[in-house]
Amino acid sequence: MNQFTPIIIPLHTISQFDKMLKIEHIGIAVRNLENSNQLFEKLIGKPAYKTESVISENVNTSFFEIGESKIELLHATSPESAIAKFIEKKGEGIHHIAFAVEDIEQEVKRLKAEGFQAISDKPKPGADNKLVFFFHPKSTNGVLIELCQEIK
After folding, report:
1. φ, ψ for residue 83, nearest 5 deg
2. Closest alpha carbon to 52 in 141, 130, 123
3. In 12, 45, 107, 147, which residue has its Cα 20 to 30 A from 71's Cα atom?
4. What would the pLDDT profile of 44-88 be if each residue is shown by its tens digit?
5. Is the pLDDT of residue 14 over 50?
6. What Å distances lie between residue 2 and 6, 7, 8, 9, 54, CA to CA?
7. Does the pLDDT value for residue 12 go beyond 50?
8. Reduced to 3 states, what is the DSSP secondary structure of residue 89?
9. How many Å apart are CA 133 and CA 97, to the nearest integer?
10. What is the CA radius of gyration of the chain?
11. What order of strands is seen across the sheet that includes strand 130-135?
């Protein structure tokens, strides 16, 4: 007869793992948004549900839904944009992974306290009706990390 010993986890421990709600999207830098939209429409089997310009970042974006997550295609509208510089240095490909959070201010504070290197001082408006904040790849094993919170 097998006996199981219950594992008791204090509630304060569980809440530590509640910080990131889900992978909200994966951002992919592309040279040509129209061609990439066609490619991802074929790949995913449905069109982008949204295209949007983010003037402050000098990018045009397209979003594709896959279950509860998304793919964001990012196309530079200026050679000075972060996306243009990324493509020049690394070529097209995965640019960032974005995590949905409930309280972006609290998460930024927590991650800074954990030693992660912030790219900016505070969250700012981004695409898809989100507040966004980025952490430098140097502090996250080479992956640009974005936090995003739905603007209510």
Report:
1. -70, -45
2. 130
3. 107
4. 999 999 999 999 999 999 999 999 999 999 999 999 999 999 999
5. no
6. 13, 16, 19, 22, 59
7. no
8. helix
9. 12
10. 18
11. 50-54, 59-66, 69-76, 20-30, 93-101, 144-150, 130-135, 124-125
